[in-house]
Each structure stands twice: as C-alpha cells, then as structure tokens.
Amino acid sequence: MQKKLAALLCAVMCITAFTGCSSTELGYLQMSADLMNKMEVCEASGKVNVDVDVDAMKEYITDISKAAGYTSEMIDDSLESLKDIKGKKSAVLDYAIKMDMNNLDYYLDMDVTYDGKKYDMGDMYYAMKDGIYVSGNTLWGAYQLIADMAEADDTSYILNENFAKDLKAALDQSKYIKLMSMKDLGLTDEEIAKMVPEGGFGDLYASVMDFYKNAFSGFTTNMVSEVSGGYKIQADGKAVAQLFIDLLDYVGNNPDTVLAATTTYMMDVMKVMNSSEEEVAAFKAQMDALQADTASIKAGANSIKLIVQQAIASASVSKVLNSFNYEATITKEGAGLNSKETFGITNGSKSVLKVTSNGTVKAGSGKVTMPISSVSVDAFEAKMEALTEKYNPVTAVTVLWGWEGDSEAMLTKERAEDSFFSGTSDDDITEYAIQDGRVYLPLRVICEAMGETVEWNNAEKTAYIVRTDGKTAMKGIIQDGKSFISVRDFEKLGYVVEYQAVDGLKQATLTK
Fold first, then answer.
1. Are strands 425-431 and 408-415 parallel, antiparallel or unpaired?
2. How far is residue 57 from each of residues 14, 115, 116, 285, measured CA to CA in Å?
3. Pairing of strands 375-376, 176-181
4. What tens-digit pLDDT sequence spans the chain (512 residues)?
5. Where does the record locate the signal sequence feature (predicted)?
6. Domain ranges across the chain
7. For residue 485, what are the contacts with CB-CB under 8 A and spacing of at least 6?
8. Burial of 276 (C-beta count, 10 Å sphere; 0-12/13-18/19+)
9. Residue 442 CA: distances (Å) to CA of 93, 366, 489, 496
10. C-alpha–C-alpha distance, residues 300 and 97, integer Å
11. Strand locations in 54-205, DSSP E?
C-alpha cells in the first residue's frame, strides 16, 4: 500500500508540475499569479480555429494502427465513423467566459461556425456551491450542427422534420437543465459551505509559487523562453515525454525535498478549505509515513519511469509523439493578458490537424448569477427518452444471464440506428427467475422496452399485452409481485426468439 501511494504521488507531481524553476519559468508563473490575485471577477474571450484534413487523418490513423499491430479488419472498424467524410474541414469557436475568482462561479457563452454557417451553442454555468447548468439552446445548437454534418445520410431519424420540431419544443420548455448539483455527489450543506473559503483563494497563489520554488528548485523544462512583454512555451511530443521522465528522475532523487514542499502546500490548502482537525491529522500521518520511507518514493518513480520508457519505445507511441507540436505566447495586454496558441498534428509532410487560438483575459465586474429556474436532469432525460422511443424505437431485446450465484441478468435494448442521445443500444440490469429448471424473464421490463402496453388483471393474477387488435394473456409465474414469462412464451407476441449459449452463459434475443 505504501509503495502504491508513493507511485501515485510521483505521478501527480509530474502531471501538476509541468514547469520548472528557472528564472524564466518562475517569471511566467508569477506573471499569471499576479494577474489572478488582483481579480475578483475575470473575463476571458477569444476565438479558436480548427482545421482538419479528414483524408490525412485516415492515413494517420491507419499508419498508427499498423505500427500497433492492428489487423486490416480492426483498422477498417476504427475508420468506420469517418467513411462518409472527406476532404478538408474547418470550424471556428467563439467564446466568452466570466469567472468569479472568489466563489469559483463560471459562465460560458459559445458559438460555432462550421462550413460557413454559425451555430448558437447557448450558455453554460458552473458554481462550486451549486452545480452545473446547460441551456436548451446548447443542445439545440449541437443538434443542428450534428444534423448538418450528417451530410449524405438523409434517412436518419434525427433528420426527420417532425423529430426536429418535437426536439425544439422540448428544448424550448427546458431553458436550463441542471446536470449536477453538489448534493448529487453526497455532500452535506456544511461540506458544501466549506468548499469555498471566505475571501476566496488568493492566499493559495503564494502557496503555489512557494511549492514550485521549494519542491523543484534547480529543475527546468527548457520549454519556456522570454519574449517582449511576456513568455513563449514550445514543446513537441518527444520533449514532453522526456520531461515526464526527467521529472520522475528528479522526484526519485529528491524525495525529501518534494515531500516536504507537498506537505506544506497541502496543509495550506486544507487550512483554506476549512478541513477538520481529524482530516488534517490523517493527511499529516500519511505524509510522515512516506517521509519515513523515501525508498518507496524512489521505487515508485522508477516503476512509473520504466512504464513510460517502454511505452515511448513502442512504434505506435513513438509515431504519435513525433507527430504533434505545441506553441503558446502569453503577453501582458494593459492590465490583462493575451494568449496565442497553436497545436498541430502532422503525418510526414501532411497536416492532419491544426488548432489555433487567440484570447484575452482581463478584470471584469459584477457577479456570475446562476439560472433562477431549471429542470432536473432526470426530467429532461425522460423527455428525450420519449422522443427516442417515438422516432427510434427498440427493435430487439437481448437478455444475458447465468453468472454463478447471481439472480440478475444484463438486458440490452437494440435500436435501428444510433440514438441522438446515446448509441444503438443501452444496457440495464434486471431480474430473472428459475422454476423447475425452466428460465423465466421479466414480462413488463421487456415488453415495455419493446413499446408494448402491459396491463395487470389482479383478479385473474394475469398480465395482458394490450394492442389495438385486442389483448394477449401472458401466463407465467409471480415472484416478489412481478410477472415472469418463459423465454419461448414471448413468441405468442410475434417476437422471434433466438436462444444460445455465450461463453458459458445463457442468452436470449427477442426481435420484433
């Protein structure tokens, strides 16, 4: 356990410390920290351009897959989603973000332009104490974009005019959907209140700087250089991989230094977050145990380094690392910052993907106000499920059972095509029953999944399937108040029943 904790700590340190402690690197960090520390409200805006050569991407995926040892069939499967898309594609994303730096409340407004057409992607909110909200306009914009990108497939139900009208009506009724609240994560009101310290997080900026200075003194990435008014960061795949290895070496060779700085920093964090004395004591005990066994830190670092080196040595990973590059320039602009970034993937002389962005960050005013009213994610999902059942109904149900000592089965609902809201199938867990060596499957769960109306006659203790042409009695067994029917009895409803053994389990597929 001690070695696992040490290995985890090494990984976290390397992920969070992708900067060094040269004067240039610390200057870059300090510039950002100074700006954030002066802001109660931060406003960011900008534009992101994405250019993709789909044909070059197909070649790129094929080359990497071959290097990884994939078969032709596996490669064809991986390219299936791109088979109807060709040529060069481009998109532009315009965004505006407002952030309350003290309370960690965020607002995002976004538009996407694709193939010359602009899509309103609505707005989204996040609040540390409240939760995550997304607007109905966001989903409508995503639907319009997906529908227009579908191109040749005009038979899909998502391009059906009536589906679009029903979807728009449902989204108009759901101006905002609350995707998650902090209470959904099991937090109490007291715990939620402690998540945001009184006076904000300003005190931690100095702690972060001290952490880097104390934990990684003398370490440098060689990726940051000084330019007029700011700093430039340049990296390619090989350099990033080597940096990860160098960091692991540094952590393994300086465990006392890294652990001491980490302990100090985390104690500052726990103080700001109003952690209890018991929580602080438990963390301190863990860190003390690690400091008493620095051999575990070195072993953990070496273990992760070996895994990374083996991965880098593989042909497929090496090809990926050789294919991408990144460059960013961050400069002061008045009382704020301007950033220009470029990320690219190339395959030989061909550009596969190029992402460029230009944005500004400056002090703002006012507060981020969460939506006054919203619908729950469960209520919204119920509306979307109803739309799916109407336009893309279940065509078959597969039930898999037979795990030793388990009375539950895996139920998979198959649809004619990919659902706009999920996939071609969705899974659930259901019960089944065995009597006199015969298997019985749950009637209501399966039949309602197939779009049937199930009616229970309590006097007769019999379930009926109700259709426009009459009722069909489905006699089976009753267990825990539920009706179960033998597998073959589903043929009475006109279903095709296929029964087979799968890897030692039993499977029945019921098709309309």
1. antiparallel
2. 30, 18, 22, 50
3. parallel
4. 334 434 444 444 444 445 567 788 888 888 877 777 777 888 999 999 999 999 999 999 999 999 999 999 999 988 887 887 889 999 999 999 999 887 788 999 999 999 889 999 999 999 888 889 999 999 999 999 988 877 655 678 888 899 999 999 999 888 899 998 877 777 777 777 766 666 666 667 778 788 888 888 888 888 889 999 999 999 999 998 888 898 888 888 988 988 898 888 888 888 877 778 898 899 889 888 888 888 888 888 888 889 889 989 999 999 999 999 999 999 998 888 999 999 999 999 999 999 999 999 998 888 899 998 899 988 998 898 889 889 999 999 999 998 887 889 999 999 888 777 765 557 889 999 999 889 999 999 999 989 999 999 999 999 999 999 899 999 889 988 899 999 999 999 999 999 888 888 999 999 98
5. 1-19
6. 1-39+196-313, 41-100+105-183+330-375, 393-511
7. 440, 441, 443, 474, 475, 476
8. exposed
9. 48, 56, 12, 17
10. 40
11. 88-100, 105-114, 117-127, 131-135, 176-181
Local structure of 198: helix, strand or coil: coil
Q: Residue 12 corresponds to which tokens in the numbers above?
A: 């976290």
Q: Which two tokens stand for residue 464?
A: 């009926």
The dihedral built from the CA positions of residue 112, 118, 119 and 121, taken in this order, carries a sign that is positive
Alpha-carbon span 431 to 212, nearest angstrom: 54
Cross-strand pairs, 63: none
Q: Which two tokens mark 46? A: 């900008």
Residues 6+ apart with CB under 8 A from 35: 336, 337, 361
The angle, 0 to 180 degrees and rounded to 10, between the axes of the packed helices 2-16 and 294-313 is 60
**Exposure of 277 by Cβ count < 10 A (0-12 exposed, 13-18 middle, 19+ buried)?**
exposed
- CB 485 within 8 Å of CB 440: yes
Place of tokens 């090989």: 238
Q: Which residue has the tokens 């002061």?
A: 332
- Evaluate the CA torsion angle 304, 308, 311, 316 in order and state its sign: positive
The length of the chain in residues reads: 512
Sheet holding 496-502, edge to edge: 425-431, 408-415, 394-401, 505-511, 496-502
142, HSE (Cβ side, Cα atoms, 13 Å): 12
